[in-house]
UniProtKB/TrEMBL annotation:
Xref: Pfam families: LRR_8 (PF13855), TIR (PF01582)
This protein's name: Toll-like receptor 2
Protein family membership: Belongs to the Toll-like receptor family.
Transmembrane feature ranges: 599-619
Main location: membrane
Amino acid sequence: MGQMTNLYFTLLCLHLVSICWSQRSNPDSERLSCDRCDRRLSCNCSYGGFTSVPMVTDRALTLDLSFNKIAVVTDDDLKSHRQLKTLSLHSNKLAVIHPSAFDSLWSLEELDLSNNQLTALKQRWFIKLGALQNLNLLDNPYRFLGSPAPFQTLLRLRRLGFGGPALEELKTEDLDGVTQLEELTVHGNILSRYEPGTLADIWPLGRVTLSLRSAFLTNTALARAVLKDVSYPETPIILKDLHLIGNESVQPLTAAADRRIRQIGFKNVSLSDEATVSFLMVFNGMPLNSFWLDDITLTGEGRWAQAKWTDQKSIDEFFLQNIVVLDVWKFVSLLELGFLLHYPRKVSVINGRVFVMPCPTSRLLVNLQYLDLSDNLLTEMTLSESLCDGHGTLKDLRVLNISGNALKSLSTINRLVAGLSKLTHLDISRNAYSSMPPTCSWPSTLRYLNISRAKLETITPCLPTTLEVLDLSNNDLKSLNLYLPALRELYLSGNKIQSLPSGWLLPNLQILTIQSNTLNMFGRSDLQSYERLQNLQAGQNKFVCSCEFVAFLQSDIKGGDVQLTDGEESYVCDSPLYLQEEPVVHVHLSVADCHRVPFVSVCCGVALFVAILLWILLWRLHVWWYLKMTWAWLKAKRNLRRRQRCREREGLESLLSFDAFVSYSEQDARWVENFLVPELEEPRDNDEESVNHQPLTLCLHKRDFLPGHWIVDNIMSAMERSRRTVFILSENFVQSDWCRYELDFSHFWLFDGNAGGEAILILLEPLSKDDIPKRFCKLRKLMSSTTYLEWPQEEEKIGEFWRSLRKALRGEEEDY
């Protein structure tokens, strides 16, 4: 029993090993596939729920695997992707990467491994990535960069991001091989050890973004060392995730000030009054010309007057976005900040919940050329206050952006900006205008106007003729019929326009964007009306894929002066129904679709010709006669069977009333009436053979057919009540339709086993089978199979003819 158990256990182990080996030898057997690739070979497999790298076409140039659940990248997962240029594994659960996982990615230029679970970085991963330019390793839990230096072989690297929630140490050899960067991002919020000079060898160095929260609070020497290594006059510095509370927290910035940097910004920072004053003192007299604040919380009351003695004349730009003032009611008037407002030429206050900028404050901005107050709470009344009701302020202003506010009146805005004599750019988009005044008075210098994302339904001559760029996208416009001679760029996407604007109204237009409208089609004549049009974006419309439009888009527009810059795939058919959602470039229309009238005309002509030819053929074959005869026969037979059923119900037998039914042509009636009837129906009293010559009863259509009845019914009834059917054959018989009916009915009757169907043929004149047309197949068959009587030309043979006929009618056998 124990041996059996051991044997069973051994077999089970072998089976499990074979399964594991089969899975190992065929790694693709359980891999899922992703087919979300566009025509540019960009494959977007993000948010796909993949737990391993899916199978994708090996021709892919871009592969996005972000926001999945991939934990491991094996050596086979990317083996066939030699053409891949961009790979993103952002926001997965990546913890293990095989040393040779990226070896085949010789063409890779961008790699994103951020926000994963990598606890260590390996130089081996990147050793074959000689073309890599962008590398993102942010927000992984590694504590240090590792040894040997992971980036040592990346000689073309230009953008680098590293660090995360666990980065503790940076040593001088960590960045070996990195000599110049366009952008450097370091997340070191808990960085505790930094060897001076670690980042100093990177030159030239473009934008630098640093997250050093802990260092700014508790280790200012470390923060100062880092800033010293990356600060150059032309290098913008952005500091993130800081709490600048007191004077001490600002001291690391002295390293940047000493290196005379010109651009500095803060993102996701809380800033006290004391820290603000300290900052202004640190940069006193320095050539700082650009100051950015994004996602800023002001914890103080704006009491910065202590720094009014500082020299901030070099500041040219203030950029403030997403500002929160904790105690807005205690925040002092900006009038106390006049020492800061006299000098800048560019001021941006975006999404700061600003509802008014007092006129006295506006008057302090004496050098202002650029003002951005977008995404705030301005109304017509508060804007009037901010612009001092359009009287004598902001005289040098060239660019004004008041988009995304609570403005509703274009006429009021026109009145307020009319006095800005140097204004060239005006952005009043994302407001709630519903109408446009008939006339307006704009600054003569205005060249750029943005009124997109409003509620405009019509356009009036209010628009200035000096415009070179006009954006009216995302309104409710149905047409644009306005003469704008200087316009070079026109944006009309997201409206309800059904046709391209007239080109003669826009003689200098070079760029036209009219996507997502109700445009059905356009053609060569539409584009020829534009004298200088170069770029056209008209995709995502409801195109009717007519032959002219498809031919124009597939061939005529290519190589012309106008280029479709939004890509051929955005031009999709909306109708006809069978082509819906089909890209126009893939549509193939038939000759019938493209030349419907000529095609239908030709088809009708051919059909008519075939019909005539078929009619002639059927006529020559006498098909019509056969059909007519068959229909008459079927109808008569149905009536006959109905009469037979009636007699059966009444208990009556079928009675034979005639010895023979005589079928003859009307032209042969004289012979029938003068010879046949007297001979067979009249008795011969003085004839010595009168005993053998009993009179017979004949059925003649002239005499015995019932008036008022259908003639075919009469024929059928006569045959039914007759023992025999006698056909008087002649040329006249052959030409008679009714004689042919009677002949065929007799033949049908014979096949049905009825007596009246037995035919007796009498030839009044010589008539051979070959003389009878082929369409009389039954007559030809009867003449071939049935003995017939010929009317003798010699008078001495007439008696014998009558004797033979009587015997035939009585059913006596005789050769005749």
